[in-house]
Write a structure and sequence with these properties.
213 residues, alpha+beta, 4 helices, DNA-binding
Length: 213
DNA sequence: TTGGCGATGCTG
DNA sequence: AGCATCGCCAAT
């Protein structure tokens, strides 16, 4: 009974990520990011907001070619690209598409399954802990030491596919995936490569530039 | 409720 | 100099 609804979480393989970032980014909404800390404790969060960065995109770090910072986004799908910004934040990206084609998805927000150990939080407080790319990295303790690592099961970071229940709810339009323009950019502001889960309080609240007109 | 700005340091 | 950010504080 209920067998079809309790199937084990399926790990996302690099082959699944071997597509253009604007195809992968919406598909990652509803998937789960799993972080294992050095002490073995795991933290899990539903991906609720993503942005795509792809060749020819003036907002992409790789727009002007390979550099010491961005070389990882030219690697095979399934690598992690972490960069440091504004002197105090890290941003976590998933490398997609084929080897040699710079392509990445910025993971902007997670809905955490549980509060970090020792913290007692309301659901609302919990939803704000990883609501934004910098906050996400802070709570998951992701920094440049994770750059160029591979996403695979039992590594420090890996991905799991949408659960059947989540997919069924999406199909039944219990929730929706909204597409908009990206956030915090001075170039490529017209490209609608941001996706987020509707009615989710774990999505970052900031509005894209284009919605200000 | 919204908007402007400072903190902070790496990158090209 | 500019930046794929965030939280504070002032103005509304």
């Amino acid at each position: 009974m209920g067998e079809s609804l309790t199937t084990k979480a399926e790990v996302i393989e690099s082959e699944w990520l071997g597509r253009p970032a604007p195809d992968v980014a919406p598909d990652l909404i509803g998937c789960t990011l799993v972080r294992t800390f050095p002490d073995g404790i795991q933290m899990r969060g539903l991906i609720v907001e993503t942005e795509a960065y792809a060749p020819g995109d003036p907002a992409f770090h790789a727009y002007r070619g390979r550099s010491d910072r961005n070389w990882v986004v030219f690697e095979a799908p399934g690598h992690v690209y972490v960069y440091f910004i504004y002197g105090m934040y890290h941003c976590f990206n998933i490398v997609t598409d084929v080897l040699g084609t710079p392509s990445a998805v910025l993971v902007r927000a997670l809905q955490l399954e549980a509060a970090p150990h020792g913290l007692t939080l309301s659901a609302k407080q919990l939803d704000r802990l990883a609501a934004g790319p910098g906050k996400l990295c802070r709570v998951l303790q992701i920094d440049r030491s994770h750059n160029a690592q591979r996403l695979e099961q039992n590594a420090t970071l890996w991905l799991e596919h949408r659960s059947q229940v989540w997919q069924q709810n999406l199909d039944a339009q219990q929730h929706k995936i909204i597409q908009t323009t990206r956030i915090g950019l001075t170039k490529g502001m017209d490209i609608p490569w941001r996706w987020y889960l509707s009615n989710c309080s774990a999505v970052s609240k900031k509005l894209p530039q284009s919605s200000l007109a």
